[in-house]
């Protein structure tokens, strides 16, 4: 074992990791977006039987950088269009590094003063950016999956209260079923959250959608205090949002709770140019939104926002003699986690770096790139299946096999990365332009790469 002090050991690790990080970032824009097959092969070097004795931190970091760094997907390089994610903003990457060395357990103010302070400011800023009520509860979760779970957990107990049932006492198995209304196009994580909360598929009432994936307001059943309605801002394929203004007030007047899954689409509320997509969304009872998608902070970071803080606290509060109660609600009482990373620090940093103008520019710019991409694809002979209302493009050409080939060839060539999907029954390529790092040149390079892959996949066209 080395004779170094703990301080020297950490300093060495930080210096070494900074060097590796520089090296990684330095060639990310040039290298293949997908990991090469040789990089994937070399990754196996890390798969050994349980190490009986230790290895120096230096060698551990070396191993990671040598074998794991090349086998990443270059999501930060500007030409990754998979899922709905982009690369992290510079200030939020820096904040994440600092956050790691701070190593704060962001449960209570007394143990993580600056971290929780920053999270509270970030929370206030996000509410203002999105135009949501300033008194809302904001919990920083690992993502929208968890934020949906949090919002729906609060909804569940609150709705039972309206039925004069105290769920925390009698338990779900002794309670009559609620009615769960959701869109046919609800994201898979909404159904997962509902399942975790004890709701079964038999109590789901699915509402049909228009061809863009928006719930049809005229198809909404009658609702009441026994109802939770799950709406969506930003369909994961088309980017379309539900008609909130037509649904929310009227459903709430009948006693329903309206939850909005706004993983990426809720950010549209921040931009005067895009706001029309989500008119009325601010009327809902609870919302989920991701920072790690369109706001470009590191993972894992979503926000569970709720108009009714007491409903959140009912399901999330933990009280123990060793926990001092402060004046403000501690993070542990707004999310399921107890010991937790102060992921909101990176949100603070990202918002501070961009400012409101910068955020609006990021949103508008990526949407403009989506339109350029769609126009380029149309010129190539693709049919654009969605109205490009946000940052999503869904395009088709040829058969399912053609789509598979185009996707595979493009991924293997490594110029860009996008996936395929089925939209309204049609196989399609799907591109999400979500990164601050994407430039117009990246869009042109991507179009060239798609042209190449399309010609190879269907040479007789
Ligand atoms: C990504 C996404 C989710 C899930 O969010 P995570 O942050 O990945 O947990 C939920 N809904 C929609 C519409 C999404 O795009």
Describe the protein in words.
- It contains 13 helices and eleven strands.
- A seven-stranded mixed beta sheet has the order 1-7-6-5-4-2-3, with helices on both faces. A four-stranded antiparallel beta sheet has the order 8-9-11-10.
- The longest helix has 36 residues.
- The N and C termini lie far apart (66 Å).
- The mean pLDDT is 96.
- Pyridoxal-5'-phosphate binds next to helix 6.
Task: Please give the largest β-sheet.
Answer: 7 strands, mixed
Low-pLDDT segments: none
Which secondary-structure class do the elements indicate?
A: alpha/beta
What value does the average pLDDT take?
96
Give the amount of beta strand, in percent.
5-15%
Helix content: 40-55%
Shape type: globular
Task: Quickly count the helices.
Answer: 13
- The number of strands is 11
Radius of gyration, CA atoms, in whole angstroms: 23 Å
| Ligands bound, unique | pyridoxal-5'-phosphate
What pattern of helices and strands is seen along the backbone?
A: HHHHHEHHEHEEHEEEHHEEHEEH
Chart the SSEs and their pairings.
Elements: H1 6-26, H2 37-42, H3 57-68, H4 90-102, H5 113-130, E1 137-141, H6 144-162, H7 167-170, E2 179-183, H8 188-196, E3 204-207, E4 227-232, H9 244-253, E5 257-261, E6 286-290, E7 302-306, H10 309-316, H11 344-379, E8 383-384, E9 392-396, H12 400-413, E10 419-423, E11 426-432, H13 440-457
Parallel strand pairs: 2-3, 2-4, 4-5, 5-6
Antiparallel strand pairs: 1-7, 6-7, 8-9, 9-11, 10-11
Helix pairs in contact: 1-3, 4-11, 5-11, 6-8, 6-10, 11-13, 12-13
This protein binds pyridoxal-5'-phosphate.
């Amino acid at each position: 074992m080395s004779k170094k002090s703990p301080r020297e050991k950490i300093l060495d690790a930080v210096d070494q990791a900074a060097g590796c990080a520089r090296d990684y970032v330095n060639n990310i824009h040039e290298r293949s977006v997908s990991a090469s097959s040789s990089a994937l092969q070399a990754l196996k070097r890390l798969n050994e039987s349980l190490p009986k004795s230790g290895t120096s931190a230096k060698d551990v970091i070396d191993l990671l950088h040598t074998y794991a760094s090349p086998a990443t997907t270059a999501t930060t390089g500007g030409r990754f269009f998979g899922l709905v994610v982009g690369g992290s903003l510079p200030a939020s990457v820096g904040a994440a590094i600092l956050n790691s060395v701070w190593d704060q357990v962001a449960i209570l103010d007394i143990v993580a003063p600056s971290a929780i302070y920053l999270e509270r400011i970030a929370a206030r800023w996000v509410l203002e950016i999105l135009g949501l009520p300033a008194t809302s509860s904001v919990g920083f979760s690992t993502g929208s999956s968890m934020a949906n779970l949090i919002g729906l957990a609060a909804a569940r107990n609150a709705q039972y209260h309206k039925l004069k049932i105290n769920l925390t006492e009698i338990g779900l198995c002794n309670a009559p079923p609620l009615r769960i209304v959701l869109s046919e196009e609800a994201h898979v994580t909404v159904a997962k959250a509902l399942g975790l909360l004890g709701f079964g598929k038999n109590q789901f009432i699915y509402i049909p959608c228009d061809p863009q994936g928006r719930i049809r307001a005229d198809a909404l059943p009658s609702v009441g205090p026994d109802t939770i309605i799950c709406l969506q801002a930003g369909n994961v394929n088309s980017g379309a949002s539900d008609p909130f203004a037509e649904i929310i007030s009227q459903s709430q007047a009948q006693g329903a709770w309206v939850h909005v899954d706004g993983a990426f689409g809720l950010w549209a509320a921040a931009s005067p140019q895009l706001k029309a997509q989500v008119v009325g969304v601010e009327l809902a009872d609870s919302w989920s939104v991701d920072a790690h998608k369109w706001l470009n902070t590191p993972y894992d970071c979503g926000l569970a926002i709720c108009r009714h803080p007491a409903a959140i606290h009912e399901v999330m509060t933990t009280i123990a003699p060793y926990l001092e109660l402060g004046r403000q609600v501690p993070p542990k009482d707004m999310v399921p986690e107890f010991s937790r990373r102060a992921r909101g620090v990176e949100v603070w940093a990202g918002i501070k770096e961009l400012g409101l103008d910068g955020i609006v520019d990021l949103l508008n710019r990526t949407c403009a790139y989506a339109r350029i991409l769609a126009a380029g694809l149309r010129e190539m002979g693709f049919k654009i299946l969605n109205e490009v209302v946000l940052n999503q493009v869904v395009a088709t050409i040829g058969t399912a096999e053609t789509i598979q080939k185009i996707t595979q060839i493009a991924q293997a060539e490594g110029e860009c990365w996008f996936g395929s999907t089925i939209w309204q029954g049609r196989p399609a390529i799907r591109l999400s332009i979500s990164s601050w790092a994407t430039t117009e040149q990246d869009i042109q390079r991507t179009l060239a790469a798609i042209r190449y892959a399309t010609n190879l996949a269907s040479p007789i066209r």
